[in-house]
Design goal:
Layout lengths: L2 H19 L7 H8 L3 H12 L3 H19 L5 H7 L5 H12 L3 H6 L3 H7 L1 H8 L10 E6 L2 E9 L5 H14 L9 E5 L12 E7 L11 E6 L2 E9 L6 H15 L9 E4 L12 E7 L2
Antiparallel strand pairs: 1-6, 2-4, 2-5, 3-4, 3-7, 6-8, 7-8
Helix pairs in contact: 1-2, 4-5, 5-6
Length: about 290
């Protein structure tokens, strides 16, 4: 990659970071073109050419994503507050836009999200995000001796499109159990490919570290352990919804050239911060590849 191209991409990435950080502000063309230091007369075409979305639609989707996360995973904010945060002057306007995009009203989504429609609606947004995904190098990988961690596990087995339902149940259960992310680490253990040939073959474990006795509270919770030992660790900063590129880098590039061998435990991650608690470009996760 030439220095000029890298500089161009860095300027565009700066715009995405600014949007994430200022979703409540007036994100007009003049402001965003100034962030990128591009001419406002050309910026909207440059943005669309790079990301496949207009600036206006990208901002709308970014706000809608935050709104949908708050609806699905948080009871602290009312639908009216969420509508205001998404840039709408009235709940009715927000409800119409939400229904048009997701096929559900905000209240219906909060009670029972249709995740397949949600994933389809955000497909173009996630493609746009991936355009400037940072690449990894061997300098990004460290080898750590990891201590074993006792965990409570909620399993997800089956269609990955329904993973959001399991995540909602997991969050509700750990809240009831008093296992807050600030005090109890959060892990995801991937026991299958992200997109297996058969959706029914998808398998992942949602885990929370705890040394306390486990109260299932009606959920299917089992006790397990993330084993200790040597691990290659790759930290991902920003847009941690999809950690597949990090896993692929470890398997495809780092492992063959490292002289190391993988240990008999699945690749997993520890989520260090969460959207929308922090802007998406500030979310962090460590991806662990267990080594012999």
């Amino acid at each position: 990659m030439t220095a000029a191209l890298r500089n161009y991409q860095d300027r565009m990435r700066r715009v995405l970071d600014y949007i994430d950080r200022h979703l409540d502000a007036d994100l007009d063309l003049e402001t965003l073109s100034g962030v990128a230091a591009f001419s406002r007369f050309h910026f909207h075409r440059q943005f669309t050419a790079i990301f496949g979305l207009s600036v206006h639609r990208y901002v709308q989707l970014a706000r809608m994503k935050r709104a949908s996360y708050l609806l699905a995973y948080s009871d602290a904010d009312s639908v009216t507050d969420i509508a205001m945060d998404a840039g709408y002057d009235a709940p009715d306007a927000f409800a119409r836009a939400f229904r048009q995009r997701f096929g559900q009203s905000p209240s219906s989504f909060r009670n029972s999200p249709e995740w397949e429609s949600w994933l389809a609606a955000f497909g173009p947004f996630e493609v746009a995000r991936s355009k400037l995904m940072r690449t990894f190098t061997t300098d990004d990988v460290t080898i750590r001796d990891v201590s074993p961690t006792r965990v409570a596990i909620m399993e997800h087995r089956g269609d990955p499109a329904r993973l959001g339902d399991t995540v909602r149940r997991f969050i509700a259960w750990r809240k009831a159990a008093g296992l807050h992310p600030r005090t109890n680490p959060t892990f995801t253990v991937w026991r299958s490919e992200r997109r297996p040939s058969l959706p029914a073959a998808y398998s992942t474990d949602l885990c929370v570290g705890t040394d306390q006795p486990i109260e299932a509270n009606g959920e299917e919770i089992r006790v397990g352990e993330i084993p200790g030992g040597r691990c290659a660790v790759l930290r991902v900063v920003g847009y941690t919804d999809n950690l597949e590129p990090a896993a692929l880098y470890l398997y495809r590039d780092w492992l063959p050239s490292s002289g190391e061998e993988a240990r008999d435990f699945p690749i997993y991650c520890q989520r260090l911060s969460f959207f929308p608690d922090v802007p998406e470009h500030e979310t962090e996760a460590d991806v662990f590849l267990p080594l012999k």
